[in-house]
Amino acid sequence: MKWRTYPPDVLPLWVAEMDVPLAEPVLRALTDALALGDTGYPAGTAYAEALAEFAEKRWGWDGCAVERTAIVPDVMMGIVEMLRLVTGNGDPVVVNPPVYPPFFQFIEHLDRRVVEASLGPDLRIDFDTLEEAFRQAVAGGGRAAYLLCSPQNPTGTVHTAAELAAVAALADRYGVRVVVDEIHAPLTASGVDFVPYLSVPGAESGLSLMSASKGWNLAGLKAALAVAGTAAAADLARLPEEVSHGPSHLGIIAHTAALRDGTAWLDALRAGLDENRRLLTDLLAAHLPSVNCRPGEATYLAWLDCRGLGLGDDPADVFLERGRVALSAGSRFGTGGRGHVRLNLATSPEVVEEGVRRMAAALG
Length: 364
Ligand SMILES: Cc1ncc(COP(=O)(O)O)c(C=O)c1O
Description:
This protein has 11 helices and 13 strands. With about 375 residues, the protein is an alpha/beta fold. The protein has 2 domains: about 10-20 and about 265-364, Alpha-Beta Complex (Aspartate Aminotransferase, domain 1), CATH 3.90.1150; about 40-260, Aspartate Aminotransferase, domain 2. The strands form 3 sheets. A 7-stranded mixed beta sheet has the order 2-8-7-6-5-3-4, sandwiched between helices. A 4-stranded antiparallel beta sheet has the order 9-10-13-12, with helices on one face. The longest helix has 25 residues, at about 265-285. The chain binds pyridoxal-5'-phosphate. Pyridoxal-5'-phosphate (PLP) binds near residues 16, 149, 211 and 219. This is cysteine-S-conjugate beta-lyase. Keywords: Lyase, Pyridoxal phosphate. Its cofactor is pyridoxal 5'-phosphate. InterPro entries: Aminotransferase_I/II_large, Class-II_PLP-Dep_Aminotrans, PyrdxlP-dep_Trfase, PyrdxlP-dep_Trfase_major, PyrdxlP-dep_Trfase_small.
């Protein structure tokens, strides 16, 4: 999608796909499966076992119990199914804009109601705003949920253990169910620790969605995992059988290999992303000093505040038309997104440089 959506003269730095060679263990697992003719239906718990082992080694979390997991087609469909389990038609779902645009679309398509609780000016959860949103959400008497993005796309915010425990306590106080999208969890900057939501005290009734799809660039190989906290196991057990028909067998093979054998590849990738974050910061300081870029703590996305450029609500339009560089339009990320763009830096340093050159040229 990244390289096919725009004409060839446009440099695409928008959708969350990476310009990387496939991790060798993933390639091997897939080619072995194809050579064997292993292209039928999936079975077994290898994906969940690989995630449990990865979570223990990487995040020191031993609570990803295989019996409290379910394979779902992808993270967004998993979110939809989790929301279906814990809320009903017309019920509210709290989100923290600016946030991944499909959160709004999928919640609305499911006939749930979006309640916004914007991040604070520091791009972290604002607990007064969140409490007010919870109060509003439960006021109507329905079943409310909170869809948390952790780490946050587009800001790269990594929520701390203290913040996540505060989320759990607040959700418990208001009777709000927490569904957390942890797809970007493997992609932390060096020196930054990701904390799984279900690992914090009080989060037992939470439901998490995890996947190797962002970390290893496997979005075309559909598979993700839903993980239930101990007090949400009964909810996950109600997941209808037909949901398990969605994930691709080859997707499950690829994701399993990534989590089990792809950690060296992941760490090499993360080192490259660290360098690209530094490069982008330096290039913006040199060529577009009025663009405010806070280095993200995770993801390969940079959230650029372009309000100082005077390009209106959607600077992405100007960068595309005049600079021939495609960025994601901030206004699609909900409140707080206007005047911003999201730039994908999971590419070569040369492409990052060319992207900034084109952005600067758009202003000339
Ligand atoms: C926060 C977040 N959730 C979900 C997705 C999509 O995941 P999937 O393709 O597994 O539905 C993305 C993709 O960029 C994302 O950034």
